[in-house]
Amino acid sequence: MIELRNVSLLYPNGVRALDAVDLKIEKGEFVFLVGHSGTGKSSLLRLLYREQVPTTGDVYVDGIAVHRMRAGAIPRLRRNVGVVFQDFKLLGGKTIWENVAFALQVTGARTKDVMRQVPRCLDLVGLAQKSRMFPSELSGGEQQRAAIARALVNNPKILLCDEPTGNLDPSNTTEIMELLQRINTKGTTVVVATHNQAVVDRMRKRVVRLENGRIVGDEERGFYFLGLGQGQVLSG
Amino acid sequence: MIELRNVSLLYPNGVRALDAVDLKIEKGEFVFLVGHSGTGKSSLLRLLYREQVPTTGDVYVDGIAVHRMRAGAIPRLRRNVGVVFQDFKLLGGKTIWENVAFALQVTGARTKDVMRQVPRCLDLVGLAQKSRMFPSELSGGEQQRAAIARALVNNPKILLCDEPTGNLDPSNTTEIMELLQRINTKGTTVVVATHNQAVVDRMRKRVVRLENGRIVGDEERGFYFLGLGQGQVLSG
Amino acid sequence: MDWGKVKFFLGEVFANLTRNAAMQLTAIGSVAVAIAMLGTFLFVQRTAAAVSDQALQQIEVSAFLSDKRDLKADSGLIARTGALPGVAHVAYVSKAQGLKDLRDKLRGEVDTSLLTTNPLPDVLRIRARHVADVPAIADAVKALPGVADVQYAAKTVQRVMNVLGAAQRVGLAVIVLLVLAAFQIISNTIRLTVYSRRREIAIMQLVGATNNYIRLPFIAEGVVAGSLGAAVAVTLLLTAQHELLPALAQLITFIPFPTQAPDLIPLALQLLGAGALVGAIASWISVGRYLRV
Amino acid sequence: MDWGKVKFFLGEVFANLTRNAAMQLTAIGSVAVAIAMLGTFLFVQRTAAAVSDQALQQIEVSAFLSDKRDLKADSGLIARTGALPGVAHVAYVSKAQGLKDLRDKLRGEVDTSLLTTNPLPDVLRIRARHVADVPAIADAVKALPGVADVQYAAKTVQRVMNVLGAAQRVGLAVIVLLVLAAFQIISNTIRLTVYSRRREIAIMQLVGATNNYIRLPFIAEGVVAGSLGAAVAVTLLLTAQHELLPALAQLITFIPFPTQAPDLIPLALQLLGAGALVGAIASWISVGRYLRV
Ligand SMILES: Nc1ncnc2c1ncn2[C@@H]1O[C@H](COP(=O)(O)OP(=O)(O)OP(=O)(O)O)[C@@H](O)[C@H]1O
Ligand SMILES: Nc1ncnc2c1ncn2[C@@H]1O[C@H](COP(=O)(O)OP(=O)(O)OP(=O)(O)O)[C@@H](O)[C@H]1O
Ligand SMILES: [Mg+2]
Ligand SMILES: [Mg+2]
To answer: Which of B73, B79, D27, D30 has the greatest number of beta carbons closer than 10 A?
Structure first.
């Protein structure tokens, strides 16, 4: 489903965000991406929906060679990949309802389906009451949930979540993680970049560990555990 | 230092974000503000640096009646109150260095002090290497730390942090919280709105609990604990 | 046909227009100013053309009639002259009338009582519809029986034609420049409105929208802003024509202004079309600038 | 004085200009177009004024000298006439010369051999420096000894003065309109550039910046954009004057264009100043719009 072969990413400013990364994720997997701040998690995800092109190496998503696809084909890729952006990226000029609907409308969905799917997704993240508000009228956590709803709405084959619970309280976090797990059970591949130790440790999924742009660990049913004991200090 | 008397906040769209809130925070205190997503934490903080004016009730900050101060006096208030915004609010057109320096320059600080304080603060949050980059070139956690550096740079009397570790890994989180504690020890009043159960439970400071815009709990040396057992599910 | 999509699309255009009202109003204002300037100049140019046409009809061809001609054929001669192509008007001036006119003309400058004999012939005074026809008319009249000689202000005609030609070329140049200027101003304005929404455009791309899907509402907005701006400009122009022209006509009595309303209708339509078109093109180009991946 | 602050400030202005280069270039383009249009019109108006001044010097006052005057006093009379205020030129035309001129004038229209006696007086032909002075000169000359009668095209003078007055008023109105239009375009442009940075302005306020602290760099940017735009416009105008005017002068021989460069220097300075000023004012107002809390 997702395959990175010897991928490096060098930003124009000279930062090497990814360094010879090899990674294979099968269809239907649930993967946590962990690592310190600034270690390349978001950069790795950006390669998968072609916001970034690898400097060297190959990226395959859903059978497509993303590193050398032509510009005209990008929208089709992105419709198959739902993304919860770390900074939400909601359209400030549209209401929450319109934001979620937009992701469905761009796929050419019928109006009937839009009218059914959008309220369903907003309900899933607990925002049914706030659908007519603009992003600026929502709390941080509410914006984050709106971003999650938008990523889900067109039933993507792959769901990429970048720190999806950073602004959520534990009960909301639990609900969202259960939601992601249900979606995963139905066959969607889910990749979650997160710092939330409690979530990772509780769910016991595959954990891919990044350090300075390199993969330094990859375990089935892993724990959060970062570096030397730092994770444990906080869990106490 | 901070006092809210029977404060209510009704947003123009009809949402009642705060409802008859009474709260007193003494100089030098360290207070956690907890509560579910959308419960009014950010709104309460907004009253303290006068981004919002209470619909009814009085707000006093550092002896100033914020609810009825004239527009011309607002900048002075804000220079005494450092804020880490939930959405960072970095200036996209300025480098990290310039962003941090800006908060000092507006106070009329001498260039000599700017040249000394800015690197010091960037170093405290671990961004010394990235000071010449623009916010869009930083990872989410790096942006968050830049926002923290900016809030600290002019040694404010009061430090308000809105979810300051939502994008940080546990080791960074620990460092930042230790930094806040050191600053608090030197006499700065610190208020932190957070969902990070591990942090609250470990630090054992005063915890003010919000629910639907009302204060439903206020304990010295409290725990995170939200609602019925939800917090505990995750701590397992 | 999914009418829901059409409804969504129109709703989106309308929402963008109203939610960014301050920005859109500013854009519409700039478009209006640019088009009003262009319209004013086009109107002035058309008025000037009409005025000069009218003024130039004053240039006359004088046909001196032979004293030895058949006087009974005169009415036929006048009719034949009037029927020549390009002739607007023919007047017969007898030698007696001619002397009286000359006396009037010279009075004060010359002691006219000294003019005792009448040295003048009978004359046909002929006006052409267009100056350009004057030389041809003069030649044709000269060939008519009974005409001794033909005279007209050849130098003046030549000069006027030169002036007209030059004025036309200069006018055209000015119009081309003004059209370019208006285009520049409108497209710059729209470019800035798009610039202020470049983040939105980037997000739309990230969510999987095709470039055309993103472009369409912007183009519709450009068309609306362009034609609303043009409409404001046209309203200003029509008002000015109705309110100012009569006052101006009273002030400047020597220019026969065309004051009928119909004159401006085709111009107004052209300006509206131009506004909409420029809006669309400018949006297309400006959005494209932020669509490159 | 903290030079570091000045350096920071200038650095900030420069950084904003270069980091938003696309937007600033667009703004500068609009300012340039607006000011070029204004400048072109001002230049045309000044040229027209110079041309009409020159053309109007052709209007003459004719003083008919009495046959019974003291002929020896003629040179004194000519000198006195030439010394009258507003007189540009005096020419003496004897009756013999006058008859010759009249013959030339009437040749072809009148059988001039019939003019055997000379009905004409000696004449002084007087040119005024400005049309407006013509009536006063005529009165003064009439009072001089030896002058029998004075004549000038009173109706024409009146008409020309009317035309000049009207043209001046219309020209002024057009200039006022163009100044308003240019102001509109420039301030709309700057308003849009500020609009696209309204989020930044809000953040600066939240971080404790005073309104003036926020305004200052914007105003400096407005001044830079305004004067750069004006500089582009002035460069265009000067180039046009050097490259196009000579060609135009060859084309339109009947208008004596003033082609010396110095003509445009004060105009250029005025336009530069106007650009900078409008940029400053527009920034001030536009930023203020987003400073209200
Ligand atoms: N600018 C605004 N205009 C209108 N309503 C708002 C605005 N900001 C917040 N709200 C509403 O006020 C309520 C409280 O929001 P607030 O941001 O204070 O919550 P919070 O406790 O900070 O939540 P979170 O933990 O998700 O950040 C929410 O229901 C939100 O929808
Ligand atoms: N657009 C960009 N241009 C240049 N450098 C960038 C850009 N985005 C990220 N970087 C740099 O690349 C590195 C990796 O960033 P990335 O966002 O992938 O980190 P991350 O693992 O997501 O961190 P976090 O947990 O803080 O979100 C960082 O050092 C950052 O400074
Ligand atoms: Mg990240
Ligand atoms: Mg909040």
So the answer is: D30
